[in-house]
Amino acid sequence: FAGTAEPGKSFRDGCEELLARCQAALGRVPAVMRLHVSDIANQAGVVEELTASLSASVAVVGQAPTGGSRVAMEAYALDSASPTLADGVLSIPLRHYELLFMGSAATSERGSGPQMTAELQAVAAVLAHRGGTLANNLQRTWIYCRDIDNNYMGLVEARRRYFTEHGLTADTHYIASTGIEGQSHPHDQLVRMDSFALFGHEPAQIEYMQALDHLSPTHVYGVTFERGTRIIYGDRSHYLLSGTASIDRDGKILYECDVVAQAERVIDNVTALLENHGGTLADLRQAVVYLRDPADAAPVEAVMSRRLSAETPRIMVKGPVCRPGWLVELDGVAVNAQGDSRFKEFC
Fold first, then answer.
1. Has residue 205 been placed in a domain?
2. Are residues 274 and 324 part of one domain?
3. How far is 130 from 233, CA to CA, in rounded Å?
4. Three-state secondary structure of 12-48
5. Selection from 143, 137, 172, 146 nearest residue 158 by Cα
6. How far is CA 120 from CA 189, 192, 342, in A?
7. By CB neighbour count within 10 A (0-12 exposed, 13-18 middle, 19+ buried), where does 52 fall?
8. Are residues 153 and 260 in the same domain?
9. Sheet harboring 84-86: ordered strands across?
10. CA separation for the pair 57, 69 (Å, rounded)
C-alpha cells in the first residue's frame, strides 16, 4: 500500500484516513508502516499514540508530501503471517523463511558519521543474535539524513569503513539502499536507518541488480550500495529497487536543471534494471518519488502517470537527493512470478 491523505485535513485525521484505507486495501492491519510527515517535531507523538496498540514496525520520517497533504504512508502486510514485535525488531515467520524489519537505533552519538556507524552496529548485533551477518542476511536499507547537502559525506565515509571491516566491498557486494534527505525526531538525530533482513535462503537466491549500459556501479563515484536486489524464491521474485536517479553509465548526472528529462531517465533506468533481471516495469508494485523541489510535482507527476501503471500505488514527497544536481529519485518494490524450482516457495 502507498497513499497520501486528503489535503486540508488535520494531521490526526489524515493518519486515521490512511490507516483505514490501508487496512481496507490490504485486508488486515499492516505489519510494516512508514509515514512521511510534514512537521515531524510536532507529529511524531501523534503517530506513536495512534499506532501504539499495533504489532507493527512503524517509522516516521520528516518528508512532506507534495500537494499540500500533511502525511503519506507506505505499508506492507502478508496474508496468514503472524508477526511479532520485540525491542524494535519485527519478525515475520513464514514456512521456509523469516523476514526481519528493523527500525532506527537509539544512540547518544553526535554527527552523521558516528550515528551511521551506530545504526549499522545495531543491525549487525540483531543479525548476529540470530546467527546472521550483514553480508549474508541484510538485504535492504533506507537511510534518512537531515540536511543531506552538509551531512551526507559523513554517513557515506562511515558506511564505507564499516562495510569494508565486514567484508562488503566492490569485489563482493554491497546492500541495496536509499540514501535521501529526511528529518528524524529528536532534531539532533542526523541519520536514521530502517532495514530489512532475510533468513532461511540460499546464497544463489540473491542477485545484485545492475544495468551497466545505463547506470554505473556506485563505487565509481565513491558510495557503497547496490542498485537493487532480486530475491528469487521457488514461486516468485521480489525486486528491492534502490533509490534511482538520472544517472548515466559513467556515474554522471544527466539533464541537469531539467526535471522532466530527469524523471524520464529515472524510469528508463528502473526499466533497464528490471529487464536485466527477468522483470518489467509492469511488475512494479509500490514506489516512492522524491523531489528536491516540491514545485516540480506537477511535471514529474505527468511523467509518472504516463510511464507507470495506474494500478501501482505510489507517493511523492519532498526528499532532496544526495547530489544537488539530481532533482528527482524513485525507489520501490517489484514482484513477478519468475521463480526457480530449485528454491523454496516464499510462503
1. no
2. yes
3. 21
4. HHHHHHHHHHHHHHHCCCCCEEEEEECCHHHHHHHHH
5. 143
6. 15, 10, 32
7. exposed
8. no
9. 84-86, 89-93, 98-102, 191-199, 138-145, 176-181
10. 23
User: Per the structure block, which three cell numbers stand in for 230?
Assistant: 532480486
Q: Which domain holds residue 191?
A: 82-200
Tell me, what CATH number does 20's domain have? 3.30.1330.40
**Block residue for cell numbers 552538509:** 150
11 with 117, same domain?
Answer: no
The model's pTM is 0.97
- Structural domains in the chain (count): 3
Tell me: do 2 and 48 sit in the same domain: yes
Domain shared by 65 and 88, yes or no:
no
Give the residue-averaged pLDDT of 297-301.
98
210 in a structural domain: no
- Verify that 69 and 93 share a domain, yes or no: no
**Rounded distance between C-alpha atoms, residue 193 and residue 115, angstroms:** 10
| Residue 317: how many other CB atoms lie within 10 Å | 25
What pLDDT digit, counting tens, does each position of 177-221 carry?
999 999 999 999 999 999 999 999 999 999 999 999 999 999 999
Is the link from the previous residue into 186 a cis peptide, with omega within 30 of 0?
yes
Which pLDDT belongs to residue 81? Answer: 79
Give the three cell numbers for residue 347.
Answer: 510462503
d(CA 212, CA 300): 25
Q: What letter would DSSP give residue 70?
A: S
